[in-house]
Design brief:
With 272 residues, the protein is an alpha+beta fold. It is 60% helix and 15% strand. A six-stranded antiparallel beta sheet has the order 2-1-6-5-4-3. The longest helix is centred in the middle third of the chain and has 79 residues.
Amino acid sequence: MRFSYLILFLIAVAVSFIIMYFASKLITDPIKRLIDGVLKIESGDYKHKVGTNKKDEIGILSRAFDKMTSKILTTQREKVKILESVKINLEKKVKEKTASLQEAQNIILHALKDVQNEKNKIEQEKVKDEAIFKSIGEGLVVLDSEGKISFINKKAQKILKRGDIETIGVVWQNVLILDGEDRVCNNNNIQESCFEEMFINVSEHKIFHFIRKDGSKFPAIVAATSIILNKKNIGAVMVFRDVTQEMLVDKAKSEFVSLASHQLRTPLSSIN
């Protein structure tokens, strides 16, 4: 009798363990699946579903979790679409800006090319002008707005017996030194009045006597004019020619005529 109770007790215990095992599996398996799903979703797999058809608390929780991941996935897709739209707009704007910048760059390059061409033309004209100035048979002096010599040709340097260092950048009164009564201003006159007397009032050819570096004097026919730009005096140009030989020839002619007329009058007086 006691043995029969013992067997029944053991059978009951075994059945209890079996029931508890399956019951625990029914509870823990959905939890494990939920945990595995959460880990997959955490790794970025938002398409993974962990929901079940069970109506217990685990089933309700898993389905709620699936809804949450679905919303996250939808939101993510919307954000991706927005980002793609923003990317497309940015690319479009970048292309437009690039095209605009390219166009502006082309315009600038053309402008720089035109400027360079104009600069080359100006340089060529400058070289031509300098060649013309240097080839002139008379002395040529160009002054800037401050009355300093900015250009002087070789003929003028040869006549004045002065080089570039002694002339370029030097005030004109210290190079074109006038002698005695030919001076257009004295030390008390201001430079502007000297400039006006020499380069504005002397518009026609006039003879002045200059003093060279070595102290020798020579007469020269001078033609001077000021350079006006926008009604403002920005400099002047002077052309002069040494007429020493011409004046000596004129003097010799005068002396010859005077001597000849004297020699001719003497026999006429005797005849009379």
